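Sample intake sheet
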Amino acid sequence: MAMRQTPLTCSGHTRPVVDLAFSGITPYGYFLISACKDGKPMLRQGDTGDWIGTFLGHKGAVWGATLNTDATKAATAAADFTAKVWDAVSGDEVLSLAHKHIVKTVSFTQDSNCLLTGGNDKLLRIYDLSNPEAAPQEIAGHTSAIKKALWCNNDKQILSAADDKTIRLWNRSSMEEVKTLTFDTSVSSMEYVADGEIVVITYGKTIAFYNALSLELIKTVEAPAPINSASLHPDKDFFVAGGEDFKLYKFDYSTKEELESYKGHFGPVHCVRFSPDGELYASGSEDGTLRLWQTAVGKTYGLWKCVLPEDLGAENSEQLYTPTPEIKA
């Protein structure tokens, strides 16, 4: 009998959840941050979804959120024309970086000393966080709003995706464009996998995998519905994707075969990411919730407890493991 996937529901947001990110694994476990149109990004324990705190200070929808590797700093991008840097331990606002338009994306360097931002003014900006008064370095080239910008290749290069239907690779030191990918439709998401230098791109119903250094195509996979986000497992065995049909799909990376699909959200899925240990993946939706899904269904992990059939009474014999109650933030 097949195991039944029982996602953990993380409530607390009041509007669509549009971005999420995990920290690296720290001595205290790993953490999850979510960006929401309610303007109140939230920090949670990554393996359980337990609410830790809400970063208060934005005056508009938050479009992007990220944590540094050791989860000591958070950064958010918002419609109030600012990017903010936060102390992720105390929740205090550390910096507010004024922009000329809506900010959509934020990304820390590995040493947490620089912050990359992008948004509707079509510019990439690099802020030196040790000298926040200094003017940021600016990189121009995109002709429409920037949706996502990420450091890659040990912070020597930058990847950016924009509404001009391009993804561009930039040299950090020369600030010049190295290569451009052009698509028939706007790119909906981009994930960078440092181990293997892979960039995962979604557009339309397509999930595409490219070499991040050369932007050479590795493979593409067609999904049953328009996809808004995809994430590759840390072991690169499989990947998950979510989109307009409210479902989460899991595919085998090498064979492209669809392994599983689950419906749990009550709206389109906007973002999906694997945890750093690969044990679960998180999804954020138009329905205002985050959900955590097990990579190996039925395994005892976090709040999931595996119960073998012989350990259950006869009246519960069809239930293979106990679903946990919803987590209320």
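Comment: The two ends are 33 Å apart (CA to CA). The chain has a mean pLDDT of 92.
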